[in-house]
Amino acid sequence: SETLSLINYGANPYLSRSIFEIIIIIFNIFYFVILPRHLIKTKIDFDYFFSVFKFFLIITLLVGYLDYIFAELGITDLVHRHIRDDVGVGGRFHGLAGEPRQAAVHMVFNFSMYILYCKYFRVKPRILILLLIVLALIFTKSMSLFVALIFFSLFLVIFRMIKFKYLILLAIIIFFMFKFENIQNYYTKLLVAWEIIESGIDLPYHLRIIKGEIYPIYDIIKKSLDFDLVPVIFGHGSGSVSAVNNIYIGDYLGARNPNAQIIRLLFESGILGTMVFVISMIWPIKYFTHNMDKKDKHLYLITMIMILSVIFAVRSSIVFMYLGIITTFLHFN
């Protein structure tokens, strides 16, 4: 296809990017997955690690809620989007994480880590802490969180880890989140995204925000309709999603990676590579918990599925961080 030929034409300029992406993956695996087991080995190490986590969890919730309340009351913008700018995010929870979508990732990570904290110290999770984290997630009013909830529901069904009544509860939550104005704005624009791209006219505001996701999906769908299934199944290779975005956007320089990791995985690794990625995140948990009772096994798997769901919606290295932490934790216990 024309797009594929353009990517091939621009392969040399993007060769360094492809190599760099591979180096990043190797670094993430070594630094976040392998290294923790060599750094956190004793009870003293774990005591210190979870004490530091508890401190930062309290600071995160305290600063985040103060900022959110001040913004809602119109008093002041306590914490800006980034340290280097004065951009606010309005009445949305974001705390120390930067943008609200990153706050959603941060809160899911905190939720999973808090479960590990309680299991380590053999204490029951405090309802107040869980409630504050869940409310913070909702207050991000993030489209990415909405997408993450959909993936979370799908994963629970795929791995047969959810009762019907809980699936109904998740469906109700997704339904009410769907009513958020921010999510409705994206939804209405996505309904006409194909026609807009095909017509060649400029993207409207909400589609411009997610153009890094729109164009790779558009390219995948076009290839599927043309029965060009090899790149759909096996992917286009490391760094290719940035290349295709630059081609469609009209800029052949710089990295234009999608914010959603699922788009990047599907385009660069294909359906097969995406399945391998999911299995590589879930299998170690299954391996370390195969002798545990069903309740604990499902609890640990659900914490990883939560992380996996949210990074599908927002690109982040926390999936490698959490994999390293939970496998080290399970190995120790």
- Helix proportion range: over 70%
Subunit organisation of the chains: single chain
Structural class: mainly alpha
Q: What proportion of the residues form beta strands (DSSP E)?
A: under 5%
Instruction: Compute the number of strand runs.
Output: 0
- Provide the gyration radius in Å: 21 Å
Secondary-structure element series: HHHHHHHHHHHHHHHH
Q: For the report, how would you describe the main beta sheet?
A: none
Can you count the helices? Answer: 16
Unreliable spans: 1-11
Report mean pLDDT, rounded to a whole number. 86
The global form is: globular
N-to-C CA distance: 53 Å
Short overview:
This protein is mainly α and about 325 residues long. It has helices spanning about 1-10, 15-40, 45-75, 100-120, 125-140, 145-160, 165-180, 180-190, 195-200, 205-210, 210-225, 230-235, 240-250, 260-290, 295-315, 320-330.
Could you please describe the fold and organization of this structure?
This protein is an all-alpha fold. Helices cover 74% and strands 0% of the residues. It has 16 helices and no strands. It has helices spanning 2-9, 15-39, 43-73, 100-121, 127-139, 143-158, 164-178, 181-190, 193-199, 205-209, 211-225, 230-234, 240-249, 261-288, 294-313, 318-332. Helix 2 (15-39) packs parallel to helix 16 and helix 11 (211-225) packs across helix 14 (261-288). The model is unreliable at 1-11 (pLDDT under 50).
